């Protein structure tokens, strides 16, 4: 199981690991991917709570920049 929000919620001055298993571009075929686990905020609420650094990194990784 992969939870995509885990890699995009680190905060300022964190070195992101490009080979992190939770990055969508590193997903392989044999697992299930979720944006968030059931006990977290909604995806929209989570996105709205990201700081500017995490928002820019997320949008860049998803090619929305």
UniProtKB/TrEMBL annotation:
<dbReference type="GO" id="GO:0004134">
    <property type="term" value="F:4-alpha-glucanotransferase activity"/>
</dbReference>
<dbReference type="GO" id="GO:0005975">
    <property type="term" value="P:carbohydrate metabolic process"/>
</dbReference>
<dbReference type="InterPro" id="IPR017853">
    <property type="entry name" value="GH"/>
</dbReference>
<comment type="similarity">
    <text>Belongs to the disproportionating enzyme family.</text>
</comment>
<dbReference type="InterPro" id="IPR003385">
    <property type="entry name" value="Glyco_hydro_77"/>
</dbReference>
<keyword id="KW-0119">Carbohydrate metabolism</keyword>
<keyword id="KW-0808">Transferase</keyword>
<protein>
    <recommendedName>
        <fullName>4-alpha-glucanotransferase</fullName>
        <ecNumber>2.4.1.25</ecNumber>
    </recommendedName>
</protein>
<keyword id="KW-0328">Glycosyltransferase</keyword>
<dbReference type="Pfam" id="PF02446">
    <property type="entry name" value="Glyco_hydro_77"/>
</dbReference>
